[in-house]
Amino acid sequence: xxxxxxxxxxxxxxxxxxxxxxxxxxxxxxxxxxxxxxxxxxxxxxxxxxxxxxxxxxxxxxxxxxxxxxxxxxxxxxxxxxxxxxxxxxxxxxxxxxxxxxxxxxxxxxxxxxxxxxxxxxxxxxxxxxxxxxxxxxxxxxxxxxxxxxxxxxxxxxxxxxxxxxxxxxxxxxxxxxxxxxxxxxxxxxxxxxxxxxxxxxxxxxxxxxxxxxxxxxxxxxxxxxxxxxxxxxxxxxxxxxxxxxxxxxxxxxxxxxxxxxxxxxxxxxxxxxxxxxxxxxxxxxxxxxxxxxxxxxxxxxxxxxxxxxxxxxxxxxxxxxxxxxxxxxxxxxxx
Length: 336
Ligand SMILES: Cc1cc2nc3c(=O)[nH]c(=O)nc-3n(C[C@H](O)[C@H](O)[C@H](O)COP(=O)(O)O)c2cc1C
Prior knowledge:
By secondary structure, this protein is α/β, with parallel strands linked by helices.
């Protein structure tokens, strides 16, 4: 299937909110013939626009911007309060107080309005699907719309999009499921087959991909491109913290797991002390838990304590080497 708005190489650099996605990374990937992405999650609309401007100054090639859909979580206040109490010893140890839950919409409306006023080539959505009116408003402006899906049912619900990003359970970072649940979660190859059977939309495959063979395999199964996040984390252009980059290469970290411990939504990270101790207690309450653990994560990072920060990583984290992003794009596409 030919998709006119995708670049010549079938490699998409995953949007990675929280620091790793930078204009430099997106521009390097797009300039190399892949599709670079900015992650607008957690940012204000103004900060998102500043990153778009900077990326446009670095590359004349198309790139994408990713938005989080507003949280639909009906968080149980008692469960949120109990988790706050459970965090108290950890907060005391780090010398901070747990944070206070705040806005649940990630400034979605402001970001959509800003993007529509001067849109990038591609916009993708995570944690749900936008309204039909938002999808068509982008399409009328020539912007391709991608929706992240984690089940065949979500794929059917998102069929107005120009493409779907099928995210398997192997993926690093947050699962982009519409609801805060692991129900129906599938590993990438199974999900890809299910999504391709459920919709005629082009499908971008994401989750646990790390090598040219992995990319060739998902293209062989029918994906139009492969989206990789973890593989880009240790690149010089990545804004991942030094602590995160070091942990990905540290033999002391041997596995990854899905957890709600840091944010209240399932996300995959390297198994560290905090993940081990808090996963069972963490409620399905996003972004409440994200706000509560924020001061703890910041303090732990400042203290160089890799045991208490979220070290997002997919199952193929061992493939994440330190070469420049452009070299990785060409390597993954089988060009060298
Ligand atoms: C550090 C990190 C941050 C992420 N942030 C986002 C994000 O802001 N938006 C999004 O749609 N996906 C995000 N993801 C998920 C990616 O889009 C993608 O599904 C995932 O990286 C693919 O799996 P891989 O990491 O094994 O390559 C993130 C992944 C990582 C590793």
